[in-house]
Design a protein that fits this description.
By secondary structure, this protein is mainly alpha-helical. It has 2 helices and no strands. 4% of the residues are buried.
Length: 77
């Protein structure tokens, strides 16, 4: 049995008129599409990467943060 597609926001079954060519796919409506966008911009979703697996990236982030804090201190004088 094929499971029907559901909206990732409200979990309703997608109506037949919503297809991959639709402007709201994979959501059931423009409202759910807007809710999802707001959640991203509000920081409710995040793509998380385990930095322990990327010591080079972790080192770069730490250097960037140190440089930014040094620049902020210089600008405040």
């Amino acid at each position: 049995m094929i499971k029907p597609l559901t909206c990732p926001v409200c979990h309703k079954v997608l109506p037949p008129q919503v297809s991959q060519d639709s402007g709201v796919f994979p959501f059931c409506s423009a409202r759910c599409k807007s809710v999802d966008l707001f959640r991203w911009t509000d920081g409710k979703y995040a793509i998380v990467e385990d930095l322990a697996q990327r010591p080079d990236l972790l080192q770069q982030i730490m250097e960037d943060e140190l440089l930014a804090s040094d620049q902020e201190r210089e600008e405040s004088y």
